[in-house]
Amino acid sequence: MSVHVRMDSEPPLPAARRTAFVKGDHFLADVTAQGMVLGRRYVVVDLDENITPFGNFVSYLVRDADGGDAFWVGNLHLLATLVAT
Prior knowledge:
This protein is 9% helix and 40% strand. It has helices at 15-18, 76-79; strands at 26-29, 41-52, 55-64, 71-74, 80-83. The chain has a 5-stranded antiparallel β-sheet with strand order 4-3-2-1-5. A hairpin with a 2-residue loop joins strand 2 (41-52) and strand 3 (55-64). The longest helix is centred in the first third of the chain and has 4 residues, at 15-18. It is globular, with a radius of gyration of 13 Å.
């Protein structure tokens, strides 16, 4: 995970407050896109966060909750719903 220094004097917030999902979160795909299939359950394996003056950009490494290869997804907050583990 790469976190870049913010441009202002405030310390960065913990990742749990900056990103929609954190490592270990389970979610359901709301759409079929970027390798995910509508209705399937996935888990966040890792994330890459880029904090810039233009916004916070996050990519998530996810895999099917039943196993399989991990793949990167962008804009996950628009594509999935967090569920209990």
